[in-house]
Amino acid sequence: MRHCTPEDLGLAALGEPLPADEAAHLAGCARCGDEVAALRRGVEALAVPELAAPGPPVAPPPGLWAGIAAATGVGVAPRAHVVAASAPPAGVPDSPPLPVGAGPVPPPADPPLAPVVPLRPRRSRVLLAAAAALVAGLAIGAGAVALRGGDDAGGSGVPVAAATLDPLAESDASGRAEVVERADGTLVLEVDLAAGAPAEGYYEAWLLTESVSGLIPLGVVRTGSEQFELPAGLDLGEYPVVDVSIEQLDGDPTHSGVSVARGQLA
Amino acid sequence: MTDLLGPRTSQRPRTVGWVTTEATPAAPDASGPDDAEVGRRFAAGDEQALAWAYERWAAQVHGMAVRAFGPGPDAEDVTQQTFVSAWTGRSGFRPEQGPLPAWLVGVARHKIADTWARRDRQRRAAEAAAAEAQRLPAVGPAPVDSAVADRVLLLGELDRLGQPQRGIIELAFFADLTHTQIAERTGLPLGTVKSHIRRTLERLRDRLEVDGAALHA
């Protein structure tokens, strides 16, 4: 069996989607998967929003320089009005601060200290938008399976999992996904999408890991019903989340980060 | 949270010539020499250059600190320590390797990671004291938050990278660029970018496996 190249394993650790062949191999290969996991630890430690390139500037309070002057013994000083003019007024940051314990010694019950979003920002935006939907999808998806009662038992395969696709953020997209096993053992994912045509671009279906750290692109979805044959050896336990995104015709094969509907297979 | 991430992805560093994630030129109305000259004088120990650097980039540094800790003493300490460390450690700044603001941002990352580590130590001390006070059965010391320790370790490892490796991995980690975008930005061939990314990630992995194991033991 041909393994992924070390370069592709590095890109996968960064969260970049691989070509379909490589992604399919990676999904089924423990050795390559372990390697990605080992490389990803460094990514998760450092590629966090708090360490990202500077965002909105915040003018430091006027007294801050005094401490620097005292510690360095530097005799000159910055011009206060220039510092003040370098950013919007302090205390009104453009972005909300991340939730962290307030006091210098937070009580033990505080949430974890470093608020970590252990994914690349593009991914974490997807993750955040989806967190609630995932929970809802779990419950509803399970209910949907229970209620089905073989209504299309005469169809082309045996249903093995299903998910309700719930709208994300302000989207009005919703739908249903079902995985059926054909007589020859192949798995097919059928996506039923109810959504208006996107203002720009097109819908694309993906399978995601629960942590949204891995993605398998499935293909273009239109409103209505689409079927995708899943790569042989794909572990749906590892990629249990069906995601529909809006992609632009920009030649960039990676996930745009704009998901409109999502659900967890159960 | 979306707002938090939004501005950064739309921000595009404007400095070219170095492989760097962050370097915002001085405001057009700023007086004094250009940024490169401020960098050279800073490296040479000219005190006025520290004041100029503060005028031009303290708000960027403080913005990062506030993003990590919210407005208040922790953020102010980070900003203060960043400039103090940058000045006392200015022999480590090489103007020919990159612009001064990018270097300041790198120092700020260390200070943010150090602050997390300090808070983690305080948390463990507080938990130990609370357990003691409540006479809870001994459960051993509270575990070190491994992500916090990993960050301190790996930021140190990034400092050891030469260019262009360091700039490439910073664009991937901190500017959220894909390898294709990094190649476009830097003008380096795609294969070169991919192989630098791989080697750097392997280096970070090795560092965690060797030193991280000892640290967490």
TrEMBL record, chain A:
Keywords: Membrane, Transmembrane, Transmembrane helix
Pfam families found in the cross-reference section: RskA_C
Residue ranges of domain Anti-sigma K factor RskA C-terminal in the record: 128-257
Gene Ontology CC annotations of this record: plasma membrane
Source organism superkingdom: Bacteria
Residues spanning the membrane: 126-147
InterPro entries according to UniProt: RskA_C
Protein name, as recorded: Anti-sigma-K factor rskA
Organism whose genome encodes this protein: Geodermatophilus telluris
Lineage: Bacteria, Bacillati, Actinomycetota, Actinomycetes, Geodermatophilales
Automatic annotation (TrEMBL), chain B:
UniProt GO molecular function: DNA binding; sigma factor activity
Biased composition (Low complexity): 23-33
Domain RNA polymerase sigma-70 region: 54-121, 158-205
Region Disordered, annotated ranges: 1-37
Pfam families linked to this entry: Sigma70_r2 (PF04542), Sigma70_r4 (PF04545)
InterPro entries reported for this sequence: RNA_pol_sigma-70-like, RNA_pol_sigma-70_dom, RNA_pol_sigma70_ECF_CS, RNA_pol_sigma70_r2, RNA_pol_sigma70_r4, RNA_pol_sigma_r2, RNA_pol_sigma_r3/r4-like, WH-like_DNA-bd_sf
Biological process terms in GO annotation: DNA-templated transcription initiation
Superkingdom in the source lineage: Bacteria
Keywords from the named record: DNA-binding, Sigma factor, Transcription, Transcription regulation
Family membership: Belongs to the sigma-70 factor family. ECF subfamily.
NCBIfam families for this protein: sigma70-ECF (TIGR02937)
Protein name as catalogued: RNA polymerase sigma factor
Organism in which the protein naturally occurs: Geodermatophilus telluris
